[in-house]
Specification:
By secondary structure, the chain is an alpha/beta fold. The protein contains 14 helices and 14 strands. Helix 2 packs antiparallel against helix 14, helix 3 packs across helix 9 and helix 9 crosses helix 14.
Length: 474
């Protein structure tokens, strides 16, 4: 039997376009001059290597940038120097205090009946094990809900292993399900008297690279150390449990540093506009310490700076100010995004739109938005202009990126240029998050799409409405 093959982006275009109400009499349109500028920006973006140069500089000259660490401080200085060199205005650092966490050492091994080392990494904010580690029998649960439904007794002194897998998807939707175990497993294990917990990494790769990531404890629940196994090592431990005639005993040894307060900060630079209205874009400057933070989120920093620079290079000022923010301390709790919302509370009424690039460097395939009532149709000319880059119309009820969540909750409309994340979670939060995983051509496509979007967002008449405060994300 023969089937007609339809390209995935074409199908998304049909589905996504249905999300946008169309009324020929009300849908805004670009002027001839604006459309010509969009075409210029797309062409220039597709031939511009500034984003690559920025990303190469950040990942090489600074490297890993753990939140509130000396490396992140060096990155802030790097950001200021880079923005000044590129001609951005009002460049500054806005600092804030936050708790500090740092890994020192991590080791795990099967002690019996099949002695061997396991590839493991501590999760961010995890407490350490007692000196010398903990050695205990392993109890496996296939999913987090299975652990949550387990009896409250019978696990005292054990190490709990949550072996839940992550589903690979283009839009990263598998992450939302799988990531729940990063904090949830520690909370449930603590309630049951376990001495530690290990999880299968929240990732889609098959390499011996465990994925780190932030976690949180629940007040009033005993804090147990938690670590992630690489996917092959989670498979190995599951097989050991299956084949062993006796209990499988594992030793876990985690050493960490925890401090109450250290300094982090957001780096800010602007392309001044003709009005006092502000469009906020950017990515987060911090990264985990295992890799060099190329896809998470050096790429987002590079893409948004390069796109803003292209718009700034056009003759005359943009209508609205374009503010680029390199948010600090995203990975360990969105501290930079929350600090920005608090520090700029008195000017949020002038923030007409916010967008963040924080999903790697894959090609953009869809434009999503969440504009206020009466402004939803303003997404239509944007999606029409972006189709030449293979970008399809998307839903109009999205939540936007993580760092702009706090200002979205205060009413600021948001947009999202969705990237192809099919292999994003192969590298996410691992030692493999390095520059060689970035495709320069895809990076240029991102810059072209972002530059076109920014220009349209700046020049379109009227604002993008306001969102009801504390509106749910998705």
């Amino acid at each position: 039997m023969n089937f007609i093959r339809i390209a995935p982006w074409a199908l998304l275009a049909v589905i996504g376009f249905a999300c946008i109400p169309v009324n020929a009499q009300e849908t805004p349109a670009l002027t001839t001059a604006q459309a010509q500028n969009v075409d210029r920006l797309v062409e220039r973006g597709l031939n511009d290597d500034l984003a690559w140069e920025i990303l190469e500089s950040l990942t090489t000259e600074i490297g890993p940038r753990l939140a509130a660490s000396p490396a992140e401080a060096r990155a802030r200085d790097w950001g200021v120097a880079k923005l000044n060199k590129l001609g951005f205005k009002n460049v500054r650092i806005e600092t804030f205090e936050m708790p500090y966490w740092e890994r020192v050492s991590e080791r795990a091994e099967i002690v019996s009946p099949f002695p061997q080392a396991l590839a493991v990494t501590a999760l961010g904010k995890s407490v350490g094990t007692p000196e010398g580690g903990v050695t205990a029998e392993i109890v496996r649960f296939e999913t987090l809900p299975a652990l949550a439904a387990a009896p409250m007794e019978g696990f005292e002194g054990k190490i709990i292993f949550v072996d839940e897998r992550m589903t690979r998807t283009q839009d990263g939707s598998g992450y939302g399900v799988a990531v729940a175990k990063r904090s949830g497993a520690a909370k449930e294990a603590g309630k049951r008297g376990a001495v530690a917990v290990m999880i299968r990494s929240v990732g889609t790769d098959s390499h011996r690279n465990p994925h780190t990531g932030g976690m949180n404890y629940e007040e009033g629940v005993i804090q147990v150390p938690i670590a992630a196994l690489s996917n092959p090592d989670a498979d190995q431990l599951a097989r050991a449990l299956k084949l062993a005639n006796d209990p499988v005993v594992v030793k876990l040894d985690l050493s960490v540093v925890i401090k109450e307060n250290e300094i982090s900060g957001n780096v800010i630079g602007e392309i001044p506009g003709q009005t006092d209205e502000i469009i906020v874009i950017g990515g987060h400057l911090d990264s985990w310490d295992l890799g060099t933070g190329a896809i998470d989120d050096g790429a987002g920093i590079a893409i948004t700076i390069a796109a803003a620079k292209l718009v700034g290079n056009l003759r005359g000022k943009p209508k609205r100010t374009i503010r680029v923010v390199m948010w600090g301390a995203e990975e360990v709790g969105l501290y930079g995004g929350k600090a920005y919302a608090a520090q700029h509370a008195d000017e949020l009424d002038r923030h007409v739109l916010a967008a963040e690039s924080d999903f790697g460097a894959g090609e953009i395939y869809r434009f999503d938005s969440r504009f206020g009532e009466g402004a939803v149709l303003k997404a239509a000319p944007m999606t029409t202009a972006l189709r030449k880059l293979g970008v399809a119309p998307g839903p109009t009820n999205i939540g936007g990126g993580p760092d702009i969540g706090p200002i979205r909750d205060l009413g600021v409309p948001v947009a999202s240029l969705r990237q192809n994340g099919w292999d994003y979670f192969d590298h996410h939060h691992t030692p493999d998050d390095t520059l060689d995983k970035v495709d320069p051509a895809a990076l240029r496509q991102n810059v072209a799409a972002w530059a076109a979007f920014l220009y349209m967002a700046s020049e379109m008449d009227g604002d993008f409405g306001r969102l009801p405060p504390k509106e749910a994300a998705e």
